[in-house]
DNA sequence: TATTGTTATACTCTATAACTATA
DNA sequence: TATAGTTATAGAGTATAACAATA
């Protein structure tokens, strides 16, 4: 578990308005927002999504969401759609279109389950495995670029703090 | 600027599939995802959004986005819509509906600008100021609850790392 | 010409509810 | 009864393109 070292004490910022920020070329105030975690989370997610779009998506026409699904299917061959939905914490009905898209692009197949005629077993095709390898390489490069402003330790610490907040244990930091 | 102290070296996790995770009650694998910052960002944002919905939104019928806009308007009286759009990094056309909603609820007004007949000056109403005070109190409580699993230093460190990533300077940590 | 606010439109992501075929 | 997948539908949230009024 990474820990954090305080160096500079964050001076409490003035929470009120900067008199006349509205007209001139002055900088405008964000009020309490800079102290709000949710604000920084959203800003960071928008930034990383745009970086992903310019790098990974530009080359491979994929979204972070679809690539995540593809990775989970690859890591769990034969997974059913309902269990995939649970894993990604989205509704079963949302998964249908995701799987439609990945199957439509020839990256995965829906196979009939040998044990349950209602269920589909999801598996990557050969093409899907090749595409995943390419996409993962691009994605790791994109993440490296995006986090270039952080040290490796800071990056690990950040992931660790986020993992603690969203509650899923982070296998990468189990000692 | 907060720094980070390494304590446990994160052992590189196996990136490949866990043989037969698909059928039984076994735990399923997330592949490379636990090493991916974007994945943890999204997960955390979903978690904090749900917490916000159960706490702040349940009491005041507001979204994080609308509350953020309200705070920026409050902090910059007389702000125009285009500058608000720039500040929040969304399109001007997106702002229109946001302002419509806030105005429709009586929280802000569009006033004609004295200097530019095209432009609207956005201002909080008395009711808007009162609502903002209530909402901010709830929001700060919500953030405290959500980050209860972190120490105050860890929370500051997290915000600092995120602020560095999305590039906006974080006024709360200027020494 | 450029900018402010606006409208019409569309796209993505997501959820709810109801359906079918199994179990 | 309950579950797996599906469909129809709707609601956010966002963007693009074009427009009128004004700068």
Task: Provide an overview of this structure.
The structure is a homodimer of 175-residue chains. With 175 residues, chain A is mainly alpha-helical. Chain A has one domain (37-167): Arc Repressor Mutant, subunit A. Chain A is built from six helices and three strands. Chain A has helices at 37-60, 64-75, 81-88, 92-104, 126-146, 152-166, and strands at residues 3-5, 108-112, 120-124. Chain A has a two-stranded antiparallel ribbon with strand order 2-3. In chain A, helix 1 (37-60) crosses helix 5, helix 2 packs across helix 5 (126-146) and helix 3 crosses helix 4 (92-104). Chain A is elongated, with a radius of gyration of 21 Å. The termini of chain A are close together. The model of chain A is unreliable at 5-24 (pLDDT under 50). Chains A and B meet through strand 1, helix 1, helix 2, helix 5 and helix 6 of A and strand 1, helix 1, helix 2, helix 5 and helix 6 of B. Strand 1 (3-5) of chain A pairs antiparallel with strand 1 of chain B, so a sheet runs across the interface. Chain A binds a DNA duplex (23 and 23 nucleotides) through residues 63, 65, 80-82, 90-97, 99, 113, 116-120.
Low-pLDDT segments of chain A:
5-24
How many domains comprise the coordinates of chain A? 1
Q: Provide the β-strand percentage band of chain A.
A: 5-15%
Mean pLDDT of chain A: 87
Shape of chain A: elongated
Features:
Arc Repressor Mutant, subunit A; two-stranded antiparallel sheet; homodimer; 175 residues; elongated
Short précis:
With 175 residues, the first copy, chain A, is mainly alpha-helical. The first copy, chain A, has helices spanning 37-60, 64-75, 81-88, 92-104, 126-146, 152-166; strands at residues 3-5, 108-112, 120-124.
């Amino acid at each position: 578990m990474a820990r954090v070292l305080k160096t500079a004490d964050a001076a409490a910022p003035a929470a009120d308005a900067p008199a006349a920020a509205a007209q001139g070329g002055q900088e405008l105030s964000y009020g309490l927002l800079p102290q709000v975690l949710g604000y920084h989370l959203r800003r960071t997610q928008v930034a990383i999504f745009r970086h992903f779009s310019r790098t990974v998506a530009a080359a491979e026409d994929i979204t972070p969401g679809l690539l995540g699904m593809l990775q989970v299917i690859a890591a769990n061959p034969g997974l059913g759609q309902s269990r995939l939905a649970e894993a990604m914490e989205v509704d079963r009905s949302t998964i249908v279109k995701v799987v439609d898209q990945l199957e439509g692009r020839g990256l995965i197949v829906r196979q009939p389950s040998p044990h349950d005629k209602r269920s589909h077993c999801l598996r990557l095709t050969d093409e899907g495995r090749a595409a995943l390898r390419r996409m993962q390489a691009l994605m790791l490069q994109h993440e490296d670029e995006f986090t270039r402003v952080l040290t490796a330790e800071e990056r690990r610490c950040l992931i660790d703090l986020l993992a603690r907040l969203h509650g899923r244990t982070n296998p990468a930091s189990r000692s």
